[in-house]
Amino acid sequence: MLYALILAGGKGTRLYPLSRRENPKQFLKIVNNKSFLRNTVDRIKTLVSKDNIYVITNENYITRIYEELPDIRKENIFTEPENKETATCIGLSAVKLLKRDNDATMIVLPSDHYIEDEKEFIDTLNQGIEIVDKKRGLVTIGVEPTRPETGYGYIQMGDKVLNYESIYKVERFLEKPNIEVAKDLLSRGNYLWNSGMFIWRADTYLREMNKYLPKMYKGMMEIYEAVGTESEHEIINERYSTMEGISVDFGIMQKTRKGYVVKSNFDWDDLGNFSSLSRFLKGCEGKNTASDNVFLEDTENCSIFGDKNLIICFGVKDLIVVDAGNVVLIMDKNRDQELKHLVEELKNEKEIEEYL
């Protein structure tokens, strides 16, 4: 049977201070009047029944998830005791789904994507599901790049799968490149953005985990045995404390020989940093983008986020300005990928902990 798994446990530190410890990015309402998480659930409902939509999150966010998704059954909300990257949370979800259904096929979706043309989105997923059924592969969704983007990973397309117009073997994955490499990849024409969306059978995913992450697999199998028993929660906590967290890209997708990519045709954006969010602000003179209540004078190539206080920019360029109430961020626009590391440093400053 077909299931959707939505990843909603991240802290969204690259969107700080809009995204905070108590209000991470999956709950933000920026693009429209619905949260990123709500939009993701609504988008997949046309393909997967709501009874088969699952969410994996951190234990700290469970109450917020219940409030945000009252139509999703509480038993469909999986929790992790701590964040251990995507290979781990997907593995935990896979063993739980497998316990319920030996034929479980998972559509794995991050909770912070913007997608237009939802019909094309569903059509693309259906192509991936077909390949999963026929090839027992690990399928990812690739997006044709429209600019030399340094904030996304890339997928090199290999041989086209016979009888399919838009499905290819994965040749290799590349991590986020610098601008010169990104320009080169764009010019080659055989690289796609790595969207972070996946489709696979739960048992296939776990078999590949056994090949490439055997220690993690061993822990997951111990969790599998405990699912549905009184010791389930205790075993999950114990095994998680010993697991080394790793992303699914690093841990499995870059190594597997079963990788396929579906080249998509829908408009897509990963709303993971301020550069991506700025594309949803209104355009202004001087290559600026801004929210409401902003006054710009002699300002160039800046992105300004705010909703209450008047923000005035005068004689500046190449900045990101974020007014988030009790925190104001002013940052070099070219360094937004470093914000995550800055937030980690801020955690060491006890006097500002309340602002995180």
Automatic annotation (TrEMBL):
<dbReference type="Pfam" id="PF22640">
    <property type="entry name" value="ManC_GMP_beta-helix"/>
</dbReference>
<dbReference type="InterPro" id="IPR029044">
    <property type="entry name" value="Nucleotide-diphossugar_trans"/>
</dbReference>
<keyword id="KW-0808">Transferase</keyword>
<dbReference type="InterPro" id="IPR005835">
    <property type="entry name" value="NTP_transferase_dom"/>
</dbReference>
<dbReference type="Pfam" id="PF00483">
    <property type="entry name" value="NTP_transferase"/>
</dbReference>
<dbReference type="InterPro" id="IPR049577">
    <property type="entry name" value="GMPP_N"/>
</dbReference>
<protein>
    <submittedName>
        <fullName>Mannose-1-phosphate guanylyltransferase</fullName>
    </submittedName>
</protein>
<feature type="domain" description="MannoseP isomerase/GMP-like beta-helix">
    <location>
        <begin position="298"/>
        <end position="346"/>
    </location>
</feature>
<dbReference type="GO" id="GO:0016779">
    <property type="term" value="F:nucleotidyltransferase activity"/>
</dbReference>
<keyword id="KW-0548">Nucleotidyltransferase</keyword>
<feature type="domain" description="Nucleotidyl transferase">
    <location>
        <begin position="4"/>
        <end position="279"/>
    </location>
</feature>
<dbReference type="InterPro" id="IPR054566">
    <property type="entry name" value="ManC/GMP-like_b-helix"/>
</dbReference>
<dbReference type="InterPro" id="IPR051161">
    <property type="entry name" value="Mannose-6P_isomerase_type2"/>
</dbReference>
